[in-house]
Amino acid sequence: MNPLALALVVLSALLHAAWNMLLKRAGDRVAFVWWYLLVPLILFSPMAVLPLEANKAGLPPASLGCGLASGVLQALCLLAVARAYQGGDLSVVYPLSRGVGQVLIVLLGVGLLKERVSALGGTGLALVFFGVYVVFLPALSGAALLRPFARLREASSLFALGAGLTIACYHVLDRVGMRQASPYQYILLLFATDFVAYTGFLAIRRRWDAVWAEWRRNKLAIAVAGSLSLISYLLVLHALKMERVAYVGPARNLGIVFSVILGAALLREKHGAIRVVGSALIVVGLTLAAVAG
């Protein structure tokens, strides 16, 4: 893999895990996400109106439809992640949502886009599921072997699984939507739709007092999280210009390992060693699935 591309993707993965850590530490995570969405929308807007060569493709009707649907799903994903972090650790929610999401992307690709999965790819997907199981293990003992199945029924785990499902769905939509579209205009459409849809969810719940309270309490963390998210995304786009997606995708999943390390080191979450092993298995499994594809 191109060394510069690898460096960009590894940094992107670290930044992605870092903004999730800031979300986990927020006072009101649902309110935090609203401000977090506003930051990249404001920062990125000039890119879609600048006279760039990539902007000339515009947004065909199919891309517009996919972008609108994807933006709504991304808003649902962030709402689910925010709820998952209310009762779940960073080092569990992040690997579960991202790992399961990537597996479902492959399965949806097979079912909807007629893509194929080899035996090696199937082995990789099985390894992902085993890695998720290990992440949920409280200890390496016989008495703990069945605990992961019970913990999957917890509210935080169900929200994380829901986030993984939305991740898979909006990635499939983006694969179709980006084919004929201007990348910058398509990304801005995603940001704008995401923000508007999330605002609708907040309006239904009438949480505006909580939104302003979260800004007063965490404005610096909000600005940093929104900026890190945008930078992380742009780093991946630049890496994709230098290297094949088959290499960039698996490398970006290092964020799963970073989330466990950050959770143990900075949030003092328990079972760090076991979760590092489980997250590493998830990354290896996703890498095998990508290479096989």
Written account of the structure:
The chain is globular and about 60 Å long. Helix 4 (90-112) runs parallel beside helix 12. It is 82% helix and 0% strand. The chain is built from twelve helices and no strands. By secondary structure, the protein is mostly helical. It has one domain. The longest helix has 35 residues, at 208-242.
Looking at this protein, list some descriptive labels:
single chain, 293 residues, mainly alpha, 82% helix, globular
Largest sheet: none
User: What gap, in angstroms, lies between the N and C termini?
Assistant: 17 Å
| Number of β-strand runs | 0
What is the 3D shape?
globular
Number of domains: 1
Summarize it.
This protein has helices spanning 3-25, 29-49, 61-87, 90-112, 119-135, 147-151, 155-177, 183-205, 208-242, 245-252, 254-266, 272-292. The protein is mostly helical.
Topology:
Elements: H1 3-25, H2 29-49, H3 61-87, H4 90-112, H5 119-135, H6 147-151, H7 155-177, H8 183-205, H9 208-242, H10 245-252, H11 254-266, H12 272-292
